[in-house]
Amino acid sequence: MGEVAALRQLVGQVQELWDLYGAVHAHGPLPRWYLLDFEHGSIKDDYCGGRTGYNSEVLKIMEANQSPPRKRTRRDRNREKASCLNSADAMNPDIWREFPEDLFQTVITRLPVAAIFRFRTVCRKWSSLLGSDNFSQQYSEVPHGMPWFFTITHENAINNVAMYDPSLKKWHHPSVPLAPANIVIPVASAGGLVCLLDLSHRNFYICNPLTQSLKEIPPRSVEAWSRVSVGMVLTGRTSNEGYKVMWLRNDGNHEVYDSVQNMWSQPGNFPPSINLPLALNFRSQPVAVGSTLYFMCSEPEGVLSYDVSTGIWIQFIIPLPLHLTDHTLAEFQGRVMLVGLLCKNAATCVCIWELQKMTLLWKEVDRMPNIWCLEFYGKHMRMTCLGNSGLLMLSLKAKRMNRLVTYNLLSKEWQKVPDCMLPCSRKKQWIACGTAFSPCPSALA
């Protein structure tokens, strides 16, 4: 009761002071307020309008006779921002009409891929600007971010295409202009183009997943249904200047397709110093370093390289790490990498190795965090690498389990990939195969 009485007395004193000085301070001297310090049992004085911490803020509110300021809502802040943009920052059409087109291209080449496609919808002039040779040249000279992933799910005998943008962590679902009967698998990529191979292993297609342009290249001359390993390299700075596609079989037969000549050719016989058959690891996509393709071999364990420009073959006998399964090659800044499942007893872990050029041995450089690997304990895991250039996408499957993760070879960062679901559907898509590609809106198939 004593505390209530003291509080009533305090309120009465404040009211008397307000009645006494409320109408005078506008033209006279600032009134002096006395604040009670309940914590230390003392009296503090301060002038109105002074800024001495909490007491000053209380006096400022009392002097203005208003309630404390409330937090503005997001709608209010957006309204203020829009009003400022509409009034002071309106674009003058007389200025922007004379804006140089080459400067437009310089700015556009540095935009994210999603922003570039929104840019194309502004007008026909801007859309045609992106298809010019000058824009293609400038786009190739600007360093861009992480690669995207082109994946396909084979459900109900239909090519369901899904592209993953790791920078936005978002799936896109473009359409592929193929007949429903032509089931294809992505086998290689270069310069923003993806090489597709049908199930007969005879017909090849080149497409740009961003623009959905598609080109069927001449079928190879050998019989169909023979399993091949396929690689792809650029012959110029961009894919528009030329690219080559190469396939290789276990018996040593191989052909190279030249986009400039639009034909397949047999560069020469397989060197006798390399024993046949090769026992290629078809689960591992070849990796390209410059004009050289690297193929994974199982017997003998190692790597087989072929320089497309010189036609030179080199075989490297490199023993694999123990207890390794589902391994595949990868590439990072010109270095040959290896990724695979390390299985021992009931424990399973994803590990990354780098090929040492001096010793020709695999050196472990990183592995998946242990807390992630605990989820695989006791399970029969299978791994598929869906992208092997700079940024890896790994599909980890077991009974009633399917996980997609990415690994950045530069930052050594592991990230989980959100579930892939078709638009207007809640059904999770199981990724069958895929490859990484560098998104390039100007690449022509």
UniProtKB/TrEMBL annotation:
<dbReference type="Pfam" id="PF24750">
    <property type="entry name" value="b-prop_At3g26010-like"/>
</dbReference>
<dbReference type="InterPro" id="IPR015915">
    <property type="entry name" value="Kelch-typ_b-propeller"/>
</dbReference>
<dbReference type="GO" id="GO:0060776">
    <property type="term" value="P:simple leaf morphogenesis"/>
</dbReference>
<dbReference type="InterPro" id="IPR056592">
    <property type="entry name" value="Beta-prop_At3g26010-like"/>
</dbReference>
<dbReference type="Pfam" id="PF00646">
    <property type="entry name" value="F-box"/>
</dbReference>
<dbReference type="InterPro" id="IPR011043">
    <property type="entry name" value="Gal_Oxase/kelch_b-propeller"/>
</dbReference>
<feature type="domain" description="F-box">
    <location>
        <begin position="93"/>
        <end position="142"/>
    </location>
</feature>
<dbReference type="GO" id="GO:0010305">
    <property type="term" value="P:leaf vascular tissue pattern formation"/>
</dbReference>
<protein>
    <recommendedName>
        <fullName>F-box domain-containing protein</fullName>
    </recommendedName>
</protein>
<dbReference type="InterPro" id="IPR036047">
    <property type="entry name" value="F-box-like_dom_sf"/>
</dbReference>
<dbReference type="InterPro" id="IPR001810">
    <property type="entry name" value="F-box_dom"/>
</dbReference>
<dbReference type="InterPro" id="IPR050796">
    <property type="entry name" value="SCF_F-box_component"/>
</dbReference>
<keyword id="KW-0677">Repeat</keyword>
<feature type="region of interest" description="Disordered">
    <location>
        <begin position="65"/>
        <end position="84"/>
    </location>
</feature>
<dbReference type="GO" id="GO:0010928">
    <property type="term" value="P:regulation of auxin mediated signaling pathway"/>
</dbReference>
